[in-house]
Predict the structure.
Amino acid sequence: MTDTQSRLGPALWEAPPGKWNPDDDDTLVCTQVRAETHDVKSFLFRTASPKLFRFRPGQFITIEAEIDGEVIHRCYTISSPPTRPDTLSITVKRKSGGKVSNWLHDNLKPGVAIKALGPAGDFSCSSHPAPKYLFLSGGSGVTPLMSMSRTFYELGEDRDVVFVHSARAPRDIIFRHELTMMAHGMSRFRTAFVCEELGEQRDWSAPTGYLTLALLKAIVPDLAERVIFCCGPEAYMANARAMLKETGFDMAHYHEESFSFERLSPEEQAETQDAPAEVAGGSFKIEFTKSGRTIDCRPDQFILDAAKAAGMRLPFSCARGLCGSCKSKKLSGQVAMTHGGGIRQREIDAGMILVCCSKPLGDVVIEK
Ligand SMILES: Cc1cc2nc3c(=O)[nH]c(=O)nc-3n(C[C@H](O)[C@H](O)[C@H](O)COP(=O)(O)OP(=O)(O)OC[C@H]3O[C@@H](n4cnc5c(N)ncnc54)[C@H](O)[C@@H]3O)c2cc1C
């Protein structure tokens, strides 16, 4: 490895490299793998040629993995803070039967390159500055809150943060030691771990069971004064919302990130249900060459929604133009696309579109 590759030579200290732009080079090289728990690993990356990562704490990248000849996209929150711009890490929990998480755990080693897009997402404390925060996380939902906490720690911002993390058992607590260390270093940063069960650890004095409203109020008596960031499994977040509503918490100060994208907001659900399956006039024809289907799509309708309404099953994930899962080749026709970073400019120039955020401007033919 040369000095430039290792970046420990003069290159690191002299002229600062430019900002990473996946449009120019989307290759990330794994530099280190860290076992966080028995089924969670952090993967550290740097860019192929010297570049700095710029992102807001809480944002995610989309990994593009080629597994058995199939290109699969998955989003992973950046767990490192933006204050360490030479490197970026993701922290991945192995999911039983999951394609990408298991592939990453088994194959991503130092020196292995992977393609990535991003950063994207608006779940960030930097978008909602507040004097007091409550971070609520469950399982791997700790990652965006860890990036935010690491940012405060490294900037020396002694913020009033209560970080309540729920895990199955003490051995499943991700970043346990680092969170404890940060709490020692910042006088107004507190952690509380809530475990469902003890597992093998018998010397555990913290509460066990699920997070209840009584417990939450005991840990955070000034709950109502805080801006809340919550991330975890769907059931965990539903429980958090229900508890907060019960206390009369002002939900304008509540922000959450879902790792599944499958739960639509009530407004999005209403939109999908209202969309008529068949529109007699005023619609365009969308032809899918591989599946041999042609459907109608209104000019005000996203192609993905029209395809779903017509009973087609296209790959998609975020449905917000962020993750890139629904990327498709447009063979002819024009669309109006309002993506959120899930597609590179050079891909757009080559005729690719994200069907989740593209509305037809006429008849369109898509290779799908
Ligand atoms: C914004 C965002 C940020 C995220 N950040 C993180 C993060 O920081 N860390 C992290 O670990 N994850 C994160 N995720 C989740 C991550 O993107 C993946 O969803 C996760 O790693 C699982 O992917 P997979 O390919 O391993 O599993 P998948 O292959 O997608 O499978 C998921 C589950 O579904 C089951 N399954 C798959 N196919 C079928 C089928 N046909 N029938 C029945 N069951 C099936 C699998 O057995 C598995 O249990 C994030 C997601 C989003 C949207």
Remarks:
- The first strand starts at residue 27 and ends at 37.
- Confidence is low (pLDDT under 50) at residues 263-280.
- The longest helix spans residues 142-155.
- The chain has three domains: 3-120, 125-257, 272-367.
